[in-house]
Structure to design on (818 residues):
């Protein structure tokens, strides 16, 4: 937490950049007559968080952080050894003590008490204040693995990613866009015999411990009673206060090939370890998710046929899966089940490509990290399975994907060499986790008794590309979600997206990326959007100007006197109070950023200004990113 | 973590004899085909969008290879791939190949084949939903991310991101690797 260590860390990162050529870069070498390869990738994030205009002061304002990822990969003969060292340091981070000052609001004080013990990686709460903690060190090995890879088999000890089929049963991997990077820490074995491939995995889940976007931690050290504040301490219990658990995960897959068609079956079990902090409580840590039970067992089978036949060259994929959720012995709840069926097909005939996707899920729940979401909201996106949504990857109005039926059709027509037209239509019915399955494989309640929502999603657009490299993609769409029982809207949206680049001269080009949306959710209407204008110089870098806005009342600070941080105030020349009634109607977020490339090995990205809060989704996994105000830099160095 | 590290060392020691006898001292790739003597490139085998198994070793030491990590949701990737198709058409008969590795995961994997067909890409497009090649060569999962391997099996260039006009530099790098 100290200024000295923060500066030392920053200096180290800078030194790595300045001296990377002479200090570390090396040509190919040999060991025992065989060449080896060493890849080093260093990613350093240096962020300053100003006042992001939300109603909470100080807890998430006016501090700096350095988050570092240092990756080393050594490859020699059939061996691969990988190591990732993470680090996190903070400067001027808030302390619990300063919230005893009455100038902070009651909301601030409550929020600080609830959040600070779970926020900063290298601290622990001791006698009511945050102190440096050796149990959650600021530098730690986050991933380590050794692999031995031969044509007939592969063995990995340590951290590995694993995905079976389309992820219904097991899908442990990186989701960079939402800051999740989970591995299975244990053993992974792959064997190939004739046309069969066998995969087996077993280990503990290993999520990343510091969230890049917010800098918040997933504490390895349990909070002990004597370190907790009075309100959160249970008198008489000198036991750890458990906030999350690393789950035990095991699974296997067998697949074979018939021609180009792949057939596979897979099984996986996620075993939640019982809580150890409270002898009187029941075994399970949390109850707010159907998969927070003792075991979640998944079984699936898939067929992947890239070409059904020469005469009928349809690309087809289909998968079915079952899920069984087994509670702890001390629970009165019965075991529950769910099932899922998914299919995708595409066919190209001349200039027309048609793709179809369908889903039918009943009580098939994503298996999430076994963590207390009230303390670790930044890690709410960590999960071990993911059902395909059959939606656009950025779809963020999807309330649930565990109890739904529907499909999508999309047609792309290549009108000329440079012009492509496309249109998509989708129809879904959604029961929002309400089709809770009974002990048998059936659904315990019929759809007529449930709150069914009917969703229609349409979009169309075109893509134009010139030989010079200039291009324009324009999309517009609409979505309607109607409550079946009343016919009322639950959600509706109209949106426009455009992305285009124009070559100006030689290496110079201009790019525009915009997304504007009119939205309505359960009684609340708002507009939001963003436009980013980039001036680019090929192979060297870019300068980017951004404007984001939102009129959503629930996400903007209504107090017009809240002008945020002094340094950022010059950016706020656009009026927040449009109708002059003394309250904020719209918030504008302006920023300037860019990218500079120093050769091919060093990239510096930066942003100064503000960005709005937003729900961001990738692959049906969503998380909320709080508003940002301040400066961000990302330095990437490869050796 | 601390408990696993000694295990890994034991495993390394136990298997070291096997590695020598199994692959020989010459750098063999993970597939069945040997790479060039001085190649420091590790092989991988993935399935392409047509269901065929494709190994890096199939091309290693024979052609100049451009590995392009991309995804259907990545706008700069699509822009870059249009130029890669042109480069591939112009140079494929001179010993150049593009291996496009899709990083699409379960959610968007269904869109890979339609995208490839509708864009008219003719080079091999490989599926890496399990991040087998990605974790080996692109652990940051940058998109796009290109690697150029010369005819001797050596990595000569790595490049993250794409801006319009970058294709000029990429073509120069390919031509340098072809010499």
């Amino acid at each position: 937490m100290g200024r000295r260590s923060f500066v030392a860390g920053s200096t180290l990162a800078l030194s790595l950049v300045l001296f990377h050529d002479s200090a570390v870069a090396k040509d190919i070498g040999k060991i025992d007559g065989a060449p080896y390869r060493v890849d080093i990738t260093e990613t350093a994030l240096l962020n300053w968080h100003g006042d992001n205009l939300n109603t909470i002061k100080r807890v998430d304002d006016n501090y700096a952080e350095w988050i570092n990822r240092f990756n080393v990969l050594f490859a020699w003969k059939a061996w691969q050894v990988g190591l990732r060292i993470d680090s996190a340091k903070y400067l001027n981070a808030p302390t619990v003590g300063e919230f005893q000052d009455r100038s902070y609001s009651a909301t601030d004080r409550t929020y600080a008490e609830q959040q600070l013990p779970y926020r900063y990686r290298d601290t622990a709460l001791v006698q009511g204040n945050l102190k440096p903690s050796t149990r959650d060190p600021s530098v730690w090995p986050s991933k380590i693995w050794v692999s031995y890879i031969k044509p007939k088999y592969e063995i990995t000890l340590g951290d590995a990613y694993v995905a079976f089929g389309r992820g219904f049963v097991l899908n442990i991997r990186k989701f960079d866009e939402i800051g999740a990077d989970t591995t299975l820490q244990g053993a992974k074995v792959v064997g190939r015999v004739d046309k069969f491939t066998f995969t087996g995995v077993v280990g503990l889940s290993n999520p990343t411990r510091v969230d890049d976007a917010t800098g918040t931690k997933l504490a390895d050290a349990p909070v002990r009673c004597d370190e907790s504040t009075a309100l959160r301490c249970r008198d008489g219990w000198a036991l750890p206060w458990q906030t999350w658990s690393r789950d035990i995960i095991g699974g296997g897959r067998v697949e074979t090939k018939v021609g180009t068609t792949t057939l596979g079956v897979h099984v996986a079990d996620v075993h939640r370890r019982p809580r150890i902090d409270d002898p009187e409580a029941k075994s399970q840590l949390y109850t707010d998710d159907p998969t927070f039970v003792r075991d979640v067992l998944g079984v699936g089978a898939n067929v992947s046929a890239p070409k059904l036949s020469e005469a009928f060259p349809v690309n087809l994929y289909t998968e079915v899966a079952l899920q069984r959720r087994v509670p702890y012995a001390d629970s009165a709840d019965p075991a529950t089940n769910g099932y899922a069926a998914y299919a995708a097909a595409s066919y190209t005939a001349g200039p027309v490509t048609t793709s179809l996707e369908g889903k039918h899920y009943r009580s098939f729940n994503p298996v999430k990290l076994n963590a207390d979401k009230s303390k670790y909201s930044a890690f709410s996106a960590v999960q071990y399975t993911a059902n395909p949504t059959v939606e656009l990857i950025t779809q963020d109005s999807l309330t649930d994907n565990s109890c739904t039926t529907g499909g999508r059709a999309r047609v792309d027509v290549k009108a000329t060499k440079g012009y492509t037209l496309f249109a998509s239509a989708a129809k879904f019915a959604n029961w929002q986790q309400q089709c809770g399955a009974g002990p048998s494989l059936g659904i315990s309640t019929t759809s007529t008794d449930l709150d069914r929502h009917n969703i229609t999603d349409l979009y169309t657009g075109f893509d134009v590309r010139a030989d010079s490299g200039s291009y324009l993609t324009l999309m517009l769409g609409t979505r309607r979600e109607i409550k079946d029982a009343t016919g009322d809207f639950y959600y509706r949206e109209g949106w426009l997206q455009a992305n285009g680049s124009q070559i100006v001269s030689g290496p110079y080009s201009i790019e525009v990326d915009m997304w504007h949306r009119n939205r309505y959710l359960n009684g609340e209407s708002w507009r939001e959007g963003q436009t980013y204008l980039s001036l680019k110089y090929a192979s060297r870098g870019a300068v980017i100007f951004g404007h984001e806005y939102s009129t959503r009342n629930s996400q903007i600070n209504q107090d017009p006197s809240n002008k945020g941080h002094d340094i950022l105030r010059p950016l706020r020349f656009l009026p927040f109070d449009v109708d002059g009634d003394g309250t904020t109607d719209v918030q504008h977020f302006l920023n300037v950023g860019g990218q500079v490339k120093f050769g091919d090995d060093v990239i510096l990205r930066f942003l100064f200004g503000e960005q709005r809060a937003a729900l961001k989704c990738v692959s049906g996994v969503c998380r909320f990113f709080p508003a940002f105000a301040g400066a961000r830099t990302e330095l990437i160095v490869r050796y | 973590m601390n408990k696993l590290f000694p295990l890994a060392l034991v495993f390394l020691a136990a298997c070291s004899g096997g590695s020598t006898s199994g692959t020989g001292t010459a750098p063999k790739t993970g597939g069945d085909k040997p790479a060039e003597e001085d190649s420091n490139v590790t092989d991988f085998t993935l399935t392409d969008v047509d269901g065929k198994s494709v190994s890096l070793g199939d091309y290693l030491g024979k052609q100049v290879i451009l590995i392009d990590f991309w995804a259907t949701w990545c706008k700069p990737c699509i822009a870059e791939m249009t130029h890669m198709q042109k480069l591939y058409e112009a140079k494929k008969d001179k010993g150049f190949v593009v291996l496009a590795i899709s990083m699409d995961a379960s959610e968007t994997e269904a869109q890979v084949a339609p995208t490839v067909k509708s864009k008219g890409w003719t080079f091999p497009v490989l599926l890496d939903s399990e991040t087998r090649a990605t974790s080996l060569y692109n652990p940051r999962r940058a998109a796009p991310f290109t690697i150029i391997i010369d005819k001797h099996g050596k990595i000569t260039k790595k490049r993250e991101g794409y801006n319009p006009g970058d294709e000029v530099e990429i073509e120069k790098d390919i031509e340098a690797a072809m010499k």
Observations:
- Chain B touches chain A through 71 residues (CB under 8 Å).
- The CA atoms of residues 29 and 43 of chain B lie 5 Å apart.
